[in-house]
Design a protein that fits this description.
By secondary structure, this protein is α/β, with parallel strands linked by helices. The chain contains 18 helices and 17 strands.
Length: about 575
Amino acid sequence: MQIMDALSSTNRPQNLEVLANTQFDVLVIGGGITGAGVALDAVARGYRVALVEKSDFASGTSSKSTKLVHGGIRYLPNFDFSLVHEALVERGLLLQNAPYLVTPVGFVLPIYEGDRHPVGMPFTTPGGVGLNQLLRTGLWMYDTLAGRRNIKRHYHLTRAQMLQQNTTLLPDKLKEGFVYYDAQTNDARLTMAIMRTAARYGATIVNYAQVTAFESDGKQLTGARVHDRIDNQTFIIRARNIVNATGIYADQVEAMTGTASQVQIEPSKGVHLVLSREKLQLGENAIVFPETEDKRVLFLVPWESRAIFGTTDTGTGDLDHPIVSPADISYLLKYLNRYLTVHFTEEDIISTYAGYRPLVKPATTQKATARLSRSHVVLEHSTGLITVVGGKLTTYRRMAQDTVDMISKRDHSAIIHPTKSLPLQGSAAWKQTQQELRQQGPAFGLNQRTIDHLIKSYGSEARIVFDLIKHDTTLGQLLITDLPYIKAEVIYACRYEMAMTPTDVLARRTSIILEDKERGQGIVEGVAALMGKELNWSPMDQQASIEDYHSKVRSQRKAEKSLTQHF
């Protein structure tokens, strides 16, 4: 018998009914990592919470990051010590509360003769004299600011050690290097873990439900009018407090109140390339590219059998359809080929992705997007709307905490911070569970790579995936031969993560659209068939979902093909 989970796709109609017939304490608009964090913090404090997302969970910025959980070493040269400290504390809490999803990784920082602005340093010294000592001091501060939650202290590498451990680094003019530590994650799966934890505590959550207008008593907001994009119905959610956690759309949501917006967003586009880790000969450590003309910091990060390289920091465009421009690709390939002995062209790119970061724009000054504030702000509108914006993936929990603190102050309630020590779904008894899962995996016919993937993606929830295979051994089959994903994950996505389309599964519940050269087109029919059986799709619905996926991939590939003509 199929288990009905709070985030089951088949349970979605019941969730909609609850949303339409309940008076909530908090309504969260936005299903990215910030909105998920607010929902979890609020429900953990005892509030009755609703969350709606106009598309799919993590479909925007929250699935298009560099997949890093880090303090932001690039901010030290700008003396943003409080921002770095906050992020390092949150990094430590994530390592504690989501140990299967957030893992430490070393970052190699090579130093070349002639470097003047390593790690984006906004200033330099005459002739570059003393820069190495400045870097040592900066890395020491990075470790110190993390306090007792530091992962591991940085250390120095000689030129010979650098080349021995990083075989494709350009040897010409290489002087020495350092290794420091941060962490990485799967951003979309982290968002889903937070969302599932919030649902476990009682939050009512729905995707593909768009807020189109607000309800008010003439002064204060009392609710929101919501359009269900799946069944094309409209209903009203009533709530005492409404939180706008829509990221780059925050000013648009504020505009729906009919009064002046308090927030100014300057979206900054970040582009990443997905490359073959084998061709890069990239080990377990990431590489920090030491210097660019515009003082950016570029990361080359190992990611399963692939590697992620980015990111750019450029201006805005179509917020709903961020595209990779010829200039973006040219910029990244330029520096990739500058510092490595292996040569890459656009033909070597497995996939690309772009997303917008919601940077907070100063009201009176004009700044380049690379210099806009990465700090978050929580603003209270005259209508009672609370907007939280800015920040970054690593600091989502602190952003959520500050937001719910404002609600607690409104209610004159005691301010508590339960999420500081609240394990995310899948983290229960992690050390013991991990050993059990590794021992059980081979009995289900799974190879070691798939077992490792399931453990890193689902934590203790991998037991549910194993149970699916136990009842139907065909679900242990690989979806794509050179990637670790299996059929059971499609079923899990429908039953426990409210996946409504093949795109949800292939682009966010898994990362197949990024890791597969064919972008999942070769398996979408099989995925749709599995989903169709779970969700009782008609043959027409199933075919429509397949065609929709192909259409999206074709559009992306057409754009990429047109881009290569510019090189």
